[in-house]
């Protein structure tokens, strides 16, 4: 069906139909982020400790990252359709199995871990199919906007599902009529798991039928060179000659210069009047802009003792950050940008907050207030919503703004990644070092900030992977960047669970609590967030080194371009 559509429908219709379906898929693929709304009932139904529930949450988070190694090659070699079929099957097995296990109180922690792992890989498959297909259907200069919009809905999915859980499957009536429901788990959560399995599976099936990646004709390669792997991504118009590649693995697109498509590549043109121009002048719109000075020393390139390539004003504005290099997965291993990117992803903190917001809410409420258990349900839903809304806005704004900045101001998108990682420190420090415990208002601020910064880094990850490493092996390269990050949830949640359980053991016997394994007071969470703050400092350093590496890469690309101009007969000054 999808192949038939690609031959009978205009590319524009395919492009936007696939994008809309991608939005729907993304809105459902982030369902794992609503785990906090399930955690209390799962703990009650199966008698789990905080360490158990954190381990279960870690499995889902880790599967989303490790899953790239499974679904990435499926997408690269079999396409979006088979990737979505994989998502459909695994979702039905994962959430459907959890529904049966919860309803029958069947299996233990190990069985649920397997099922939740399947749901996590399914989420990755939906995420990758929607993201990679839409990004391939739009120009590279719009990568941030496309990924930002799609991932905004990925972040918003936690809000959607938490609202479904809070308003349709809250179980408040059960808690009011039967206080024991809080200790045994509600039937509402059982119905919610069934809802997840049916709705998510249905949307994945529809997307597998109608989502299509536009097939582009591959231009002929330059004689004497290998065909560029990304040639299919170059827009070839009648009467327009695409500029040749800088190297065998580097592709230029018409949008590289300020993101504007022009009828002919100006930097490829040369005239005798070039030497008469001020080679240091920039276009009027580019005067005094941030980031431009970072590349000034690469504007003139010495290729010999008495020969220097001279650039015109327009040539000096060539944008190296819109050059896409198609790298095979094994090439990433010798790239400094790859390793700085990986370390920043691996060390990013915040998982323990997102997955344990329910236990944090219980810890800060008044234990002597009889309405606290019921109030905790609504407050958990509210904070999950704040995390999700922040996540949505962070993804959307970081994508749109980074596209605008990279196209107009010639600044690497990685600068936004660095700023986002630095901002994550704020909520971690608030949680770890508040002397008298955090207030509800402070908790709201932390929820929104962690959501926004996580959203920003998530959207930037998608577009930066394409910017840095290309799109031919996009799925596999995503997996290589993210796979080690699968250890992050395990470590972060294990630290949180260990100190939480220790606080439970040391809690005075006269303080009431909601149930076995529940903790009250700042000792439940402050130590774990102090550790998270220290780790996040290292993460910020890695993100800073990534920005530095991209500046060096930009200078290298400018030098390569200058050398190529000289070889084609561009004017030179003795």
From TrEMBL:
UniProt keyword annotation of Transmembrane helix present: yes
Domain NFD4 C-terminal, first and last residues per copy: 325-553
Pfam families: NFD4_C (PF23262), Nodulin-like (PF06813)
Domain Nodulin-like: 15-228
GO CC terms: membrane
Compositionally biased intervals (Polar residues): 247-274
Location(s), subcellular: Membrane
Transmembrane stretches, start-end: 12-35, 55-75, 82-102, 108-132, 144-164, 192-212, 415-434, 440-462, 474-496, 531-551
Domain of life: Eukaryota
Topology in membrane: Multi-pass membrane protein
Region (Disordered): 220-297
Keywords, comma-separated and alphabetical: Membrane, Transmembrane, Transmembrane helix
PANTHER family: RIBOSOMAL RNA-PROCESSING PROTEIN 12-LIKE CONSERVED DOMAIN-CONTAINING PROTEIN, UNCHARACTERIZED NODULIN-LIKE PROTEIN
Protein name: MFS general substrate transporter
Organism expressing this protein natively: Actinomortierella ambigua
């Amino acid at each position: 069906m999808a192949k038939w559509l690609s031959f009978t429908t205009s590319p524009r219709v395919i492009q936007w139909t696939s994008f809309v379906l991608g939005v729907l898929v993304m809105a459902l693929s982030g369902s794992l982020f609503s785990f906090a709304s399930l955690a209390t009932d799962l703990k009650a139904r199966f008698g789990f400790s905080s360490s158990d529930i954190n381990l279960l949450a870690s499995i889902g988070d880790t599967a989303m990252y490790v899953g790239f190694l499974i679904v990435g090659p499926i997408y690269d070699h079999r396409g979006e359709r088979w990737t979505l079929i994989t998502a459909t099957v695994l979702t039905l097995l994962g959430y459907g199995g959890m529904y049966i296990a919860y309803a029958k109180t069947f299996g233990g922690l190990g069985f649920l871990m397997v099922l939740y792992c399947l749901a996590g890989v399914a989420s990755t498959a939906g995420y990758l199919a929607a993201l990679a297909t839409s990004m391939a259907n739009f120009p590279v200069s719009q990568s941030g906007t496309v990924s930002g919009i799609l991932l905004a809905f990925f972040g918003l999915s936690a809000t959607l599902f938490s609202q479904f859980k809070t308003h349709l499957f809250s179980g408040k009536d059960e808690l009011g009529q039967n206080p024991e429901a809080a200790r045994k788990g509600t039937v509402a959560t059982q119905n919610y798991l069934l809802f997840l399995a049916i709705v998510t599976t249905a949307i994945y099936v529809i997307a597998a039928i109608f989502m299509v990646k536009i097939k582009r004709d591959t231009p002929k390669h330059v004689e004497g060179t290998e065909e560029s792997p990304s040639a299919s991504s170059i827009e070839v118009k009648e009467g327009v000659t695409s500029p040749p590649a800088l190297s065998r693995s580097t592709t230029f697109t018409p949008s590289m210069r300020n993101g504007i498509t022009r009828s002919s590549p100006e930097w490829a043109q040369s005239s005798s009047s070039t030497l008469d121009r001020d080679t240091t002048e920039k276009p009027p719109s580019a005067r005094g802009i941030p980031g431009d000075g970072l590349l000034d020393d690469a504007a003139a390139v010495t290729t010999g003792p008495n020969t220097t390539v001279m650039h015109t004003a327009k040539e000096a504005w060539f944008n190296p950050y819109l050059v896409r290099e198609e790298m095979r997965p094994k090439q990433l291993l010798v790239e400094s940008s790859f390793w700085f990117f990986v370390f920043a992803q691996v060390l990013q903190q915040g998982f323990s907050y997102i997955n344990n917001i329910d236990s944090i809410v219980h810890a800060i409420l008044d234990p002597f207030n009889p309405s606290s258990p019921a109030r905790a349900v609504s407050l958990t839903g509210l904070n999950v919503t704040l995390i999700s809304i922040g996540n949505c806005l962070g993804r959307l704004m970081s994508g749109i703004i980074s596209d605008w900045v990279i196209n107009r101001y010639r600044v690497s998108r990685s600068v936004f990644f660095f700023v986002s990682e630095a901002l994550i420190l704020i909520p971690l420090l608030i949680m770890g070092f508040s002397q008298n415990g955090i207030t509800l208002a402070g908790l709201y601020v932390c929820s929104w900030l962690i959501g926004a910064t996580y959203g920003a880094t998530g959207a930037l990850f998608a577009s930066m992977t394409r910017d840095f490493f290309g799109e031919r092996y996009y799925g596999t390269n995503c997996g290589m960047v993210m796979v080690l990050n699968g250890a992050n949830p395990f470590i972060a949640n294990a630290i949180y669970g260990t100190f939480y359980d220790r606080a439970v053991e040391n809690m005075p016997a006269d303080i009431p609590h909601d149930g076995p394994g529940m903790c009250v007071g700042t000792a439940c969470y402050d130590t774990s967030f102090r550790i998270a703050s220290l780790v996040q400092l290292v993460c910020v350093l890695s993100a800073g080194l990534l920005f530095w590496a991209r500046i060096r890469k930009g200078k290298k690309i400018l030098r390569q371009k200058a050398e190529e101009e000289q070889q084609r007969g561009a004017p030179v000054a003795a």
